[in-house]
Sequence to fold (221 residues):
Amino acid sequence: MGEIKFNYDLGLFGDTLNRVILREYPHRTKDFINSFLSNQINCKIWLIDELVNILERKKDHFIVKRVTVLGSWYGNIIVPLLIDNIPTLQEIDLIDMDEDALAISRKFLGHYDFKINYMHKDINFEEFEDHYTNVVINTSCEHMVPMDSITFHHDDQVIYALQSNDMFNIREHVNCVKNETELATQANLSTTYYMSHKKLMGEKGMPYNRFMVIGKRNDNL
Fold:
């Protein structure tokens, strides 16, 4: 496999910050800037890198046309990575309970000639059994209910790519895990293609672990 592509457009970032965030959503300035922190970028590149490796091995019988991102936030990192690195992809669903974040997403990602669906839903209280997708990505499992409570249409054919952490001291983190094995168990993944973690440093210099698992809920693929 070649290196992961990530077209980081500083001009677009500056334009969105000045034209959209500072004028229409000034209260989101710090949050928007934080979404570009190195840990945010590196962990999403890590996910896409491992996911692409898995998809390459399965390309003869598993073609990804639709990806769903749960807790998508601004989608500013994950969407370019998906578009640039999964050539078969035709559609991306961004699902988040934060209406402002989705509105900013529309403006930040609006230059892409690509089908992106922006869905304002609270994942903790929604049902997705009728929602068809090939891959589900959740890079913020610590913020929501365990993933085993969420299922999709033809769920046994869906590949899940999930990240969480062990930052139990943060109030918004309602569902941290101690390791990647616990994350896989929470998601009810019977087959795992990848499991690992990275040791990272938080904003205030506190070390923490970022866990990642990629797998599915049966072993037919």
User: Anything to note?
Assistant: The first helix runs from residue 10 to 24. Residues 38-216 form a domain with the Rossmann fold fold (CATH 3.40.50.150). The two ends are 21 Å apart (CA to CA). The helical segments are 10-24, 29-34, 38-57, 78-85, 99-109, 180-186.
